[in-house]
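Structure representation.

___
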Amino acid sequence: MAESVKASVREPELVGADELNAWKRGFTPQAEIWNGRLAMIGLSTGLAVVLFVRVFAST
């Protein structure tokens, strides 16, 4: 049983940093990484704007 489990588990493929940061088209792991980065930038910017307005516009 342990032999069949070990045979079905693959080693992860190592990818260089330059390839992870490359702009590639389509549904690729690189696209998912950039999607997450841009989503976090947008979320952080939106929360910062809301906080800024709530703190400085409350009169």
